[in-house]
Design goal:
Blueprint (H helix, E strand, L loop, with lengths): L6 H5 L16 E2 L1 E5 L2 E8 L4 E7 L8 E6 H6 L1 E2 L3 E2 L1 E2 L8 E2 L4 H7 L3 H20 L2
Length: about 130
């Protein structure tokens, strides 16, 4: 595996079931693993080997789903005996809500208008806070 997340980065991910009362749209996605047309978005971690998150395999958005993902299996996965799974580095990946990730929105059928509303609300709050500074 390329860019294996370090212990500090893994420790920042909520434990399994810690966010079970959070809506899927509001789940924070802490890591993004990818290879070819496959993506795994990580929301929770048991601290050992088991992640919970969203998987899109072979760009099949219709069959994409939330579920458990084995860290050891991701690390062992290779295509053509040489191409390995990669993890986006911290400088390239910003922790954000699932509803803010285009591929998850597309697979879940969440409208882009929801993201626009969120961005507009966020910008309005920033403008309001700037007015008090």
């Amino acid at each position: 595996m390329w860019n294996i997340p370090n212990k500090i980065r893994l420790a920042e991910i909520p434990k399994l079931y810690e966010t079970e009362n959070t809506t899927l749209k509001d789940k924070l996605i802490h890591l993004h693993f990818f290879i070819a047309g496959c993506d795994w978005y990580i929301a929770e971690y048991d601290g050992e080997d088991l992640f919970w998150g969203f998987a899109i395999l072979n760009n099949d958005y219709e069959m994409a789903e939330w579920g458990y993902i084995s860290f050891s299996e991701l690390k062992a996965l290779k295509l053509n005996s040489w191409l390995e799974v990669d993890c986006e580095i911290e400088e390239a990946w910003e922790v954000r809500k699932a509803s803010e990730i285009e591929q998850i929105r597309k697979a879940q059928g969440w409208a882009d208008s929801e993201l626009s509303k969120h961005r507009h609300k966020k910008a309005a709050n920033s403008d309001l806070q700037a007015g008090f500074a």
